[in-house]
Amino acid sequence: MSVLEDWINAACLELGLERGDIDQGLVLDLARDVAHGVARPGAPLTAYLLGLAVGRGVPARDAAARLTEMAEDWKAPETPDVPEAPEVPEVPEPAGPAGETLLDDA
After folding, report:
1. Residues annotated as region Disordered (predicted)?
2. What is the DSSP code string of 18-60?
């Protein structure tokens, strides 16, 4: 048995869930699609949202299919083009007659 399987079994036992009720492939596929199509941090958050929806009675496969479709079609809202600030030339520090710096850093 893999470490992941051991973890899932232990987590199900801890939460009082039936291991057979967990569609591991469905959740992992959804997480992959969101991570690649939207953003990596969206994967665990979307898996959590899927769990909330299933807890409220939405069939897991239906909810995952809708979320996967959203992720595949996802385009982040465009941000307006902002012109880059012009480069500011570096101003040399004034030097005294012997070349020493006039400004004291202390």
Report:
1. 72-106
2. -GGG--HHHHHHHHHHHHHHT-TTHHHHHHHHHHHHHHTT--H
Nearest to residue 42, comparing CAs of 70, 20, 63? 70
Classify residue 71 by its DSSP letter: H
Query: Pick from 45, 20, 19, 17: which is nearest to 31 by CA?
Result: 45
Instruction: Please report, in tens digits, the pLDDT of each residue of the chain (106 residues total).
Output: 799 999 999 999 999 999 998 899 999 999 999 999 999 999 999 999 999 999 999 999 999 999 999 999 998 777 666 677 777 777 777 666 666 666 655 5
Contact 95, 104 (CB under 8 A): no
Sign of the four-CA dihedral 38, 43, 46, 47? positive
